[in-house]
Task: inverse folding
């Protein structure tokens, strides 16, 4: 299995960085600084906050599912931070339907809301197996939805990014919105596990 | 904004040919029947962008019965596809 650092594209990027530095077009730390600035504003706590709001506010939930980018603005979040704002589509789990996200072609991921993606998300094993047999991948994560649950795999093959709105756990009526956000896991937002 | 080529709920078929260069239609999803479930706006077509041309086209979310690709599968695969990869079924 190839990794990011051994991939041909990584070698090309390193070579390009070296040339840009040699020609004094960028300073040696410019790329690192830009990446750090982007990552510091990206965290799964953002996705968790959007989910918790949707759990306590049905109208927000509806807006999050129909126009996620606009709904994020309402709570001070955005899919910007990269070169351009990316379109986000939020897909809701229900009793009858479960969603899971992947990028089968590369490693597209809603970074602004979930932070840097886990290594397994970028692995060829996950990217190929979840498309062909999502139930076996979910089982690896310890989750076995009932046979009648319809599973949809959302493959971010173009410009949109997908995020899962997990089901609210039972017996959480007494929790505050921020306590609810604390229950939301990164795996839940990817859809490989319930919350 | 150009006119949309496909409507929500419309049946479409993905193209069959291997373009022989960069494309964002996954190999497993060639020559497959799907249903338009969402419109994602207009974006530069990567197949042309990679050779230096800016061609902006519509992108659609298309849902496929995964059993077309993987025998015994009982799930749905939703892909974001540029309209150039699609034709009415």
Result:
């Amino acid at each position: 299995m190839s990794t990011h650092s051994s991939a041909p594209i990584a070698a090309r990027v390193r070579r390009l960085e070296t040339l840009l530095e040699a020609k004094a077009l960028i300073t040696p730390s410019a790329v690192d600084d830009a990446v750090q600035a982007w990552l510091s504003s990206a965290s799964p706590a953002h996705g968790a906050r959007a989910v918790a709001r949707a759990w306590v506010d049905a109208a927000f939930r509806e807006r999050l599912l129909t126009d996620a980018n606009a709904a994020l603005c309402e709570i001070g979040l955005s899919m910007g931070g990269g070169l351009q704002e990316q379109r986000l589509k939020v897909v809701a789990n229900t009793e009858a339907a479960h969603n899971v996200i992947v990028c089968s072609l590369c490693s597209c991921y809603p970074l602004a809301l979930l932070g840097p993606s886990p290594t397994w998300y970028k692995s060829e094993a996950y990217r190929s197996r979840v498309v062909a047999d999502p139930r076996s991948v979910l089982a690896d994560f310890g989750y076995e939805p009932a046979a009648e649950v319809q599973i949809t795999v959302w493959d971010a093959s173009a410009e949109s990014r997908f995020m899962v709105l997990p089901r609210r756990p039972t017996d959480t009526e007494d929790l505050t919105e921020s306590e609810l956000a604390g229950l939301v896991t990164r795996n839940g937002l990817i859809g490989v596990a319930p919350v | 904004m150009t006119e949309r080529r496909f409507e929500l709920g419309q049946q479409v078929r993905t193209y069959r040919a291997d373009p022989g260069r960069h494309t964002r239609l996954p190999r497993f999803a060639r020559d497959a029947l799907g249903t338009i479930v969402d419109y994602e706006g207009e974006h530069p077509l990567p197949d042309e962008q990679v050779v230096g041309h800016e061609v902006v086209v519509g992108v659609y979310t298309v849902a496929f019965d995964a059993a077309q690709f993987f025998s015994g599968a009982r799930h749905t695969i939703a892909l974001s596809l540029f309209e150039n990869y699609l034709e009415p079924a």
Q: What stands out?
A: The interface with chain A takes residues 24-26, 28, 38, 40-41, 43, 59, 61, 63, 66, 69-70, 73-82 of chain B (CB under 8 Å). The beta strands of chain B are 11-14, 33-44, 56-65, 76-82, 86-88. The radius of gyration of chain B is 13 Å.
